[in-house]
Every structure is written in C-alpha cells, then in structure tokens.
Amino acid sequence: MSRTFSEEAQREASRLIIKTGQMLLQHGAESNIVGYNCVRLGKALGLDSVEVSLSASSMVVTTLTNEHCVTTARRCSDRGINMHVVSEVQHIIRSCEQQELDLKTVRNRLNAVQAYKHNRWLVVMMIGLSCASFCRLAGGDWTLFGWTFLASSVGMIVRQEVAHRHFSPILNFGVTAFVTTLIAAQAVTHDFGNNPTLAMASSVLMLVPGFPLINAISDMVKGYANIGVARWIFASMLGFSTCIGIIAAMTVSGVWAWI
After folding, report:
1. Would the pLDDT of 3 be above 70?
2. pTM of this prediction?
C-alpha cells in the first residue's frame, strides 16, 4: 500500500533496499533472488516502484514514489557464500511484509545480521570425512580412507589459513590443491592401500566449485546472462587454479597418477 514519503524517508528506504541487495549478492544469492527481494522490501515499505540493475560486482537501485525518483549504487565485493545471511535477510523482509516494520527497525535488524561460521575444527573434520567417504565409495580400502582423511583435512586447514589472510580465492585454491595432492601422492609413492590413486582423486573433491557453477547456470537461464557468464568464468578460474596446484604437486612428487 502506497504511503506518503518525504524526500529523506525515500532516500532512507532506498539505502535499506540497496543494502539488502548488497548483502544478498555478496553472500552468494542468485541474481533473481536479489532482485526479487529488493522489490519485495520496497513494496513492503510502501514505495510505488523499485527497479534493480545488477552486475557481477555492483548494483544500482531506483525507487519511485509520488512521482519522485531516487537512484543509488553500491559496490558488492565478494564475501564468500553464506546462506545464513541470505536466510536472515529474507526473514527480515517477510517480517516487514507481515508486521509493517518501520524504516528504523528494518535498518537495525539488517545491521544486526552477522555471517554465521561453524567451528573451524568441525569443518575440517567433516570435509575430511566427506572426501574419505568418496574414496571408500570408489572402492578404496580403510587404509586409503584414513590417508584421504588426513590429506583433505590438512588441505582444509591450509585453505582456512590462506582465506584468513585475505588472499585471492584463486591463489587459495591453487595452494590448497598443491598441499592436498602432495600429501595424497605419498600413498602412491609408498604403495598404501589397494588403489592409491583414489586418495589423490578423492582428497581434492572439496575444491570443486559447485555452488558458483550452479548459480552461474541459474543466472543465465533466468535472464541474467552478464552475471551468469562472470560467475561461470570465476568458477572456471577456480577450477583452473586447482588443476595447476594438482599438476605442480604431481611434478614435485614425481607421481603422475592419471597419465
């Protein structure tokens, strides 16, 4: 329902809408969800119209009410995939629609949203178990299960440490792949298990950029071709960096498992 907005209130609403879109885009939401939720929030706040333009690293929002337009732009630097932030933002929008929250309440709740992070050692353990389970499913014995667990767990620790120091994700994936493959290659060098190459193949599965690839395809299918292509290229670069790390480790260790 349209309300009478002062110019300052419209500016504040526009800032809240673009902050919402920025948080969603930065934490891995697909483009259609970003645009749709920005429009939802604008309607819930009482604006007549909300138009959203997205790119891979920025967004522009134009709001219209009482025949007065306000346009604002924001840069959206990548902060990593975090569905907790996406879910919390959508809860705020739903509450605004149902309870008619005012601008101040919406602003305070958005500012209170923090990216939830699991305990790092729990993540290391679960990544190790998942990669080791893939090795077991592929026919590896329990010796290879344990060695894959070790290689992928150490690799995940390296990945966390590199990310903590804010290096590029492309460099992060390459370094992680190198360390993980170097450890897993020892199973081939010392002939551990029934098929040692399975440890090398399974331990680096944590580096498959599945979420970015899914988002890229979803964006292209739903009409956001420019963002979809950008996300596809970024995911491909992550994969290429992983391949470079694996090849470097096989060169150093002298183990060419797949040739």
Report:
1. no
2. 0.84
